[in-house]
Amino acid sequence: MNAIVNNLYPVPNHGASALKLAAGSTPVSFGDFATGTRYVLLDITGGDAIVTFDGSAPASGNGHVLKKGQIYTWSKQAAQAARFVQSASTKANIYASQFTN
Hints:
Layout: H1 2-6, E1 9-10, E2 17-21, E3 39-45, E4 49-52, E5 64-66, E6 71-75, H2 76-81, E7 83-86, E8 92-100
Antiparallel strand pairs: 1-8, 2-8, 3-6, 3-8, 4-5, 4-7
């Protein structure tokens, strides 16, 4: 895994994306990423988030918890499939940057 992380380069001319999550909201997802994107670096701020990758709605009993303060590196395909909601009452924010290698 470290070999991948150590050899990432920002995708030229593509800024970061941000998602703001709110309690009881409809799941949100990222739009399409640039053609050259291979990996997406995500960080979670504010509160925890819940994510699913199978098209189902994320909820407290369905999905993976993403902890605030953590950084995640996903494939472009995983990031495009991801659907997010916040985990608790604290609003969560997800910031994503696109990388290639």
